Amino acid sequence: MKRKVWLFIIMSAIVIILAGCGDAVEAPEAIRFQSIAPEEAMQRLESEEEIILLDVRTPEEYAEGHIPGSQLIPLQTLEEEAPLQLTDKDVPIFVYCRSGSRSLEAADILVELGYTQVYDLGGIIDWPYEVEQ
Fold first, then answer.
1. Where are the domains of the chain?
2. Looking at residues 10-25, what average pLDDT do you find?
């Protein structure tokens, strides 16, 4: 009988110790979106049909020049507008802004909203191809 009690105490202690260790070790955060270089983006835009090219700058910036075929949803309204305008959450979305800061934030927002193929294209200042006004 004593042996069973000691075995129970030891097993209980092991379970408690192991349970405590589980909280101390956190899994690394999963990659939420990918970066994409302008060259790869252009190649995919030319060869694939269902890609959304998303500009998250202001309407004024967009009017000054944007990548042809892009859609404007300013970062300030992205959380509200994306579900209304970007209805298929599994279509690839290439996000860009002026320099790359807002596109990072926008990519995070899109992933949080459940979009599954989000790519950060960075800034239009690094886009070596045609822009239109």
1. 34-126
2. 50
